[in-house]
Amino acid sequence: MTNKLFEGGSMPGVGPIHIDEIKPTLATMEKHLGIDLQNNVLGSVGKKEFSGDIDVAIDIPPEKITEFGEKLKNHPLILYYAKTSVFITKIKIQNYDPKRTYIDPRTGEDKGVPEGRTGFVQVDFMP
User: Fold this and answer.
1) How far is CA 61 from CA 1, 68, 127, in A?
2) What is the pLDDT of residues 29-63, one digit of tens each?
3) ∠ CA(124), CA(19), CA(46), 5° rounding?
4) Separation of alpha carbons 41 and 106, rounded Å
């Protein structure tokens, strides 16, 4: 099986996640993985209305990295898994609303549903 990554690290079948969907999505993963994800997000996650993916820093000892990767790879909530310098995954967005629209923060104008919303988001775990 060949796994393709597209420009920007985006994989097929994933799309933007709304800020209100981030916490429940990460909370579900935290419960199943047993690690704090919400307090370790990177970049603009949770700062903008929509995020293209979720980048999470994980603090695990080097000798546990392979074990963590296997845990992700075999986890039923992980729908896609790839290992590069980070762990790249695809997961279902919790509390997903396909009709959620983007409101321009400068004008207050409703710009409609962002292109590419799928109900799935890419989550990158960065040791």
Assistant:
1) 30, 10, 9
2) 999 898 999 999 998 888 889 999 999 999 999 99
3) 60
4) 25
